[in-house]
Write a structure and sequence with these properties.
This protein is of the alpha+beta class and about 425 residues long. It contains 13 helices and eleven strands. Bound molecules: flavin-adenine dinucleotide.
């Protein structure tokens, strides 16, 4: 995909500068407009339009001036992270196909450990990919390359960086060739803190013993070379906030109108907002509303996992079209693809000078407080529902059962309500 995109860009005259980190996105003095970027090398590039593709939460907190938006984004729920193993095998393992998913028996407990405790489950579900099964260049003849992805919780705080896992970013280690037999001997205690070396060791043992138990293949002795990535690696290598491999989660207050917009908005200075110290859902709602308000930083756009429409390679590709359409609309230029889509669908892109970019703008230009009202209505509905459920699952005194209940039970109903 990347190769194809690079080819298209080069045909259109784009030049790429790889391994060139951006240290800062440059803004005018009033932060009203982006003017370019400052590279880590000290070189300054000026630009009419800046499109940020680095992790959105990282960018607000590291590349832009401090703001309430940045603070609010840091409090939002993030997606999971992963411990990933990269194994070079000295043989082929026909028992494994290109894509293999191993699901834990204790499904709910497994996912609670990831998403609520931010740890590794005692019995993790994991994904094993064998790229050499479909791409002969991925391993020498007669051998296999294996990638294992074990979903784990994200880093809890930046202090977690101290636990850099068994391998620093980019580094490799040779195999310990541990046999799954040793892993089968005892029950491994689930870690209760984010001890990454411990979690990597646990993940490795569990993956090997599970593959052995379910396929009969003892992979350990065949691992000729290996490396592992932890949440800390993802954070350091890709600047992913908290090492969350999918960016902001797709939880309720992180999707649709609550997802950070593709146009940059800084809000006020940090510490000046009423909700700054709030945590949990309340701060999420407050953060969402605040992200919906304020003025755009002109000429600065976001694309990628943590903005619209969301995370994952196909979704991010779709998102790049959304961002491109908005930029063209802001420049008063028609999107080249708009005419085709108007013919295809009869609606999108047919209205306004900016094609479907203008369509998106029309939706975004609604009254500022409507999101707040939606959130309030939703909260009210949730409170009412929880009351109904509480009383409805009682001992015959519930609201829904009240007309059928014995007269003596009705005072209890009133008391409960
Ligand atoms: C281990 C793992 C497994 C995954 N599996 C899947 C999967 O199976 N299916 C799926 O759909 N998605 C998967 N994803 C998620 C998917 O990769 C992401 O959602 C997607 O790549 C996000 O695209 P993006 O453009 O937002 O960011 P990225 O693809 O991360 O691109 C952002 C780029 O910005 C660069 N960058 C960061 N900071 C700076 C800076 N300061 N200066 C210059 N450049 C910078 C980074 O180096 C990176 O190249 C996986 C992710 C991981 C980590």
């Amino acid at each position: 995909i990347i190769e194809a995109l690079v080819n298209v860009g080069e045909r259109l005259g784009v030049s790429y500068r790889l391994s060139t980190p951006v240290a800062q996105i440059l803004l005018t003095r009033d932060s009203g407009r982006a003017t370019g970027v400052l590279l880590s090398s000290g070189e300054q590039l000026s630009a009419d339009i800046v499109v940020n593709n680095s992790d959105l939460v990282y960018a607000y907190n590291n590349l832009l001036p401090p703001s309430t938006t940045a603070t609010a984004l840091s409090k939002r729920p993030s997606s999971c992270s992963s411990i990933s193993f990269y194994w070079a095998l000295d043989t082929q393992v026909p028992a494994l196909s290109a894509h293999n998913i191993f699901l834990a028996d204790e499904y709910r407990e497994s996912f609670d450990n990831i998403f609520k405790k931010h740890l590794i489950p005692e019995q993790p579900s994991f994904y094993v990919n064998v790229p050499s099964r479909v791409d002969p260049t991925a391993a020498p003849e007669g051998k296999d390359a294996v990638v294992v992805l074990v979903p784990v919780g994200h880093l809890l705080e930046s202090g977690s960086d101290a636990h850099a896992g068994s391998n620093a970013p980019g580094s490799t280690s040779t195999s310990h060739n541990a046999s799954p037999a040793s892993a089968r001997d005892g029950k491994h205690a689930t870690p209760t803190t984010q001890d990454w070396p411990g979690m990597v060791a646990l993940a490795r043992r569990t993956v090997l013993s599970t593959i052995f138990a379910r396929t009969g293949v003892d992979l350990g002795p065949h691992i000729a070379h290996e490396s592992a990535n932890t949440p800390a690696t993802w954070k350091t290598l890709l600047n992913l906030d908290k090492g969350a491999i999918l960016g902001l989660s797709h939880s309720f207050f992180n999707v649709l109108c609550f997802r950070p917009p593709t146009r940059a908005r800084l809000g006020g200075r940090p510490g000046t907002g009423l909700f700054d110290e709030l945590g949990g859902a309340a701060s999420s709602i407050a953060a969402s509303i605040r992200l919906g308000g304020g003025d755009d930083v002109k000429g600065l756009y976001f694309v990628g996992a943590s903005t619209h429409p969301g995370t994952g390679v196909p979704i991010c590709l779709a998102g790049s079209k959304v961002t491109a359409a908005q930029i063209l609309a802001d420049l008063g230029m028609p999107a080249p693809w708009a005419a085709g889509e108007a013919a295809d669908h009869g609606v999108m892109g047919a209205r306004g000078k900016g094609g479907d970019g203008a369509e998106i703008d029309a939706k975004r230009a609604g009254p500022l407080l409507s999101r707040f009202h939606y959130a309030l209505l939703l909260l009210l509905l949730l409170v009412l529902l929880s009351l109904l459920v509480r009383t409805g699952t009682g001992t015959g005194t519930g609201l829904l059962r009240a007309p059928l209940a014995a007269p003596s039970s009705r005072p209890a109903l009133r008391a409960e309500l």
